[in-house]
Amino acid sequence: MYHGLAILLFVSILQAADPVPLGQLPKGKTFLVILAHHDDHTWEWGFGGFIARLVDSGWTGYYVRTTNDEKDGREWGPNDQVNLRESQEAARHLGMKEVISLNWRNDHMSSAPLKEIRAQYILLIRKYRPDVLMSWDPWGHYDRNPDHKRVARAVGEAVWMAGLPNVHPEHLAAGLEPFRVPQLYYAQREDYGKGHTANIAMEFNQAQLDRKTDAFWSHKNVRGNPASPEARRLSMETPSREAGKRAGVTFAELFYAIGEWDDVPGLKDYLQTNARPK
Ligand SMILES: [Zn+2]
């Protein structure tokens, strides 16, 4: 019994210390963050630090709030608009350009038609043509929130389907062109269970951590005020340090990153061998 406990402890320490390779800043200029709720881009496990770093590096970012957040907060009636305003404030702290609200009914997304949600994402991807897209991990299991699961699945499909000309040809008739998102960064709490495993750490600095903290606490309608300035600071600093440790840096967030073109067998090698600068 004692032995078993010792092994269990040892295993959990090993898991906590699993190293994650440090990612380089991706190439590009536009990013899209598509999530379910007003505050999803501000949690400790993502995405604020990476967002702030991209903005500081000259990128333009857009936040897509998929639901109307009517049930999140103290008063059902005003929640939608109060949460939207606080989401805009959080986005401003992070330096994002705009919050786009799709207003699907909060907590009802498991019965909302996947195809309709996906069609909206495809339209946005074709409009903004993001070099990077962030969302929940479509393959992450056990997230109890029905809106998170629905959004993740629709995003996972949309990033690929937006590149197919026969998908929603009405978008092409409206002047948009197919576009497949080249770089994807998915986050999720790792303690939600198997399915999500981070494969890259993105570093950020103290000033970017401060903005991540400001963004998190912008959502007063659901979070109220921190117990103390110390509690406020540690709320984002502690998890950012923990994630940073796994990549040998001070602060980081962990993602499951996919380069959409890397999965075509041999393409990367072919381009490295044959592509020549103009
Ligand atoms: Zn959420």
Keywords summarizing the entry:
10 helices; binds zinc ion; 278 residues; alpha/beta; 7 strands; seven-stranded mixed β-sheet
Task: Tell me what the structure shows.
There is one protein chain. This protein is of the alpha/beta class and 278 residues long. It has a single domain, classed as LmbE-like (Rossmann fold). Helix content is 43%, strand content 15%. The chain has a seven-stranded mixed β-sheet with strand order 3-2-1-4-5-7-6, sandwiched between helices. Helix 2 crosses helix 7 and helix 4 packs across helix 5. It is globular, with a radius of gyration of 19 Å. The protein starts with a helix and ends with a helix. The structure holds zinc ion.
Q: What distance lies between the first and last C-alpha atoms, to the nearest angstrom?
A: 67 Å
- Sheet with the most strands, sense and barrel status: 7 strands, mixed
Mean pLDDT: 90
Helical content stands at 40-55%
Layout: helices, strands, pairs:
Elements: H1 2-16, E1 30-35, H2 48-56, E2 60-67, H3 76-94, E3 98-104, H4 114-128, E4 132-136, H5 146-161, H6 169-173, E5 183-187, E6 200-203, H7 206-217, H8 220-223, H9 229-245, E7 252-259, H10 267-274
Parallel strand pairs: 1-2, 1-4, 2-3, 4-5
Antiparallel strand pairs: 5-7, 6-7
Helix pairs in contact: 2-7, 3-7, 4-5, 7-9
The structure holds zinc ion.
Zinc ion binds near residues 36, 37, 40, 145 and 148.
